[in-house]
Amino acid sequence: MRQTTNVAMNIVDVQAPLAPAPTSPQTLDENWRKSIPAQVFLNHFFAMDYHIQHQNDLFDLAKFPIFQQFYGRATDEARKALEKLLLNSWSAEYALRITPVVNDEQYLQSSLHWTFPQAYYSALFSARAFLAVQGVNVSNEELIRKRIGNMVVRGYYPASIGYYALGPINSYRIQRLPMAKRFSVVGKGDLLLPSRAGSAQAELAQFLKTTRDQRVKTLRNAIQNNPKTALRSPKTGEILQKFSVEQYKQLAKQIGYTTYFDMLSRLRISSTNREIERFVDSEIDVKLFHQSLVNIVAHVNSVHEAYIAKALGIEAYRQLVAKLPAYLQESFVRERMETVIAPMLNGTDDQSAE
């Protein structure tokens, strides 16, 4: 029987409307229109969380040959850097988790200014620690994104976050979401949360697509806005306004794979950016959004921490946790170590790094 863990809160299998309707139809229409981008964003992350809960496959990681054969290459100096990266990851996750302690809807709405980046940076530092224990010390987010993307494709992650997209624009291939094609994302007129495994996978496929669209367009603009790199017409020498299929294929190769990590990077919204105001001023279920983010971050970080503990050995990992400040040492970090990491490593033969 598959083990379960209290790392994440179970999702109630229901669909939720946007918000109680205002009395004026005109006000309703205006509020609904303003809330659409935020609700779509919530639906995407809710689907991500739903898929994690439905797969319930965290403990399957211990059965992966790639996990059982995983070992560290970190030197003593690199281990100090590893500890700092984990501290940063856990501090951000801790801050993300304590936000709902203030039971005030307006405060929660405003808190999106910092909960979005907290979720992303917790996962980012966790990913950096995962790479660092393998002797790969990189801080450039584009390099991290590509490294993690390759590891997703190579099978380091469980199915719950192991899906990805590849290929050029208008010809994307979505991998490891087998039910996505049989379901379509609910129309924007309804904007209901996914309530079945198939609709959640369809939502994730759409999330992958829009995220990859953004990355393709950003790269294209970066190339074309620079006179030194811009592609030009061989006939006129003018900067191209439209790309050919072959040119988009080249962009796709430069981008690499689109994965859960790219999706989380969508949370990296500056508090000075107008985009964040669309979420703060909307009528979405902020508590549900926040809980989804907490669950996703806990799951992603658990996977990375399991690999790190496997590489270091459980005793060395315990010593690392024992060095943490008290507020972290006695928090979710220790609970996750005892309920997830240690039991997972008990199922593997080699728990210590050479």
Tell me the layout of helices and strands:
Elements: H1 25-55, H2 65-68, H3 76-98, H4 105-110, H5 112-132, H6 141-153, E1 164-166, E2 173-175, H7 197-224, H8 245-255, H9 260-265, H10 274-280, H11 286-312, H12 314-322, H13 326-329, H14 332-346
Antiparallel strand pairs: 1-2
Write up this protein:
This protein is an all-alpha fold. It is 58% helix and 2% strand. It contains 14 helices and two strands. The chain has helices at 25-55, 65-68, 76-98, 105-110, 112-132, 141-153, 197-224, 245-255, 260-265, 274-280, 286-312, 314-322, 326-329, 332-346; strands at residues 164-166, 173-175. Strands 1-2 form a two-stranded antiparallel ribbon. Helix 5 crosses helix 6 and helix 11 packs across helix 12 (314-322). It is globular. The two termini are 32 Å apart. Mean pLDDT is 87; it is low at 1-23 and 349-354.
